[in-house]
Amino acid sequence: AKEQGRNTYRFYTPQMHATSMEQLTLSNDLRYALERGELHLCYQPQVSFETGGLIGVEALLRWIHPKLGMIPPDRFIPLAEDTGLIVPIGTWVLHEACRQAMMWVAQGLPSLRVAVNISAKQFRESDFSDTVKAVLQTTGLAPNLLELELTEGMLIENVTQTKLTLQSLKDMGVTLAIDDFGTGYSSLSYLKHFPLDRLKIDKSFVKEIAEKSGDAAAIVEAVVALGHSLKLTVIAEGVEQQDQVDFLHNRKCDELQGYFFSRPLTPQALEELLRKGVNG
Ligand code: C2E
Ligand code: CA
Ligand code: CA
Ligand code: CA
């Protein structure tokens, strides 16, 4: 639905001028961001309930623009998707995350799974699984340490092709997570047809737990139960407060991620955390 919106006509108003000029400048600058080394990854810890230890990280993209400073991904990833730049950028992210994770392994630090966000356009490239394979080969990272975060919408678009791509990734040994679970299509039937490993409960539901909204609590509870009945592990994102931790713990959510544990960290800061031995 998002993509359809981009192709439809819109009326132009003078107020739109500033934003579209900015978009245009950003789109243009983004073309050079990669080669100029302006893109960086930070890594947010994911914690296991059972052990309380650090078990994985999610790689999150940052653009340090020379004039505008830090531009959050929500502002430039949509532009990268529109222009197709998301494909080379996404390949860079995959490579950089695997290279970094392999470096930690080589330094003898405890093994961490690294989760990489994949955009729909990137996933639909006919050679996507070949790209993943090549990245694993060149970096030497064990495939089971790479997790791909996909969204519901991109899976149900072309089910036959999706199944083939997911299966070839599974055959490689990569793990697969559904990101932002619960926000997209409510067609749950696809879940059991795809070889998935993990459901990631969207942070909007986690947020509402703290606001004591009965609906969100029921949704979280249902998602955990659904995930477990399909033999998937369940991770909650956006965990900020103790009462959310307690709630998710009582509902047997397997893993947690959020500011309560840590903000996304630079590779150096994450390394320090690993050296302190917070792994479990
Ligand atoms: P996402 O995949 O849902 O990532 C989680 C977002 O929640 C991240 O925002 C993270 O910093 C933020 N977050 C983590 N813990 C908390 C918390 O406790 N509270 C709150 N309120 N937020 C928290 P970020 O880094 O700004 O990324 C935004 C989105 O940009 C991501 O959402 C993802 O969709 C996209 N993105 C980021 N990196 C990449 C990438 O390398 N490739 C692609 N295709 N998309 C990316
Ligand atoms: Ca994600
Ligand atoms: Ca998410
Ligand atoms: Ca999101």
From TrEMBL:
Signal peptide limits: none
Every EAL domain range: 23-278
Domain of life: Bacteria
Protein name: Diguanylate cyclase/phosphodiesterase with PAS/PAC sensor(S)
Organism of provenance: Trichlorobacter lovleyi (strain ATCC BAA-1151 / DSM 17278 / SZ) (Geobacter lovleyi)
Phylogenetic placement of the source organism: Bacteria, Pseudomonadati, Thermodesulfobacteriota, Desulfuromonadia, Geobacterales
Full-protein interval shown: 343 to 622 of 631
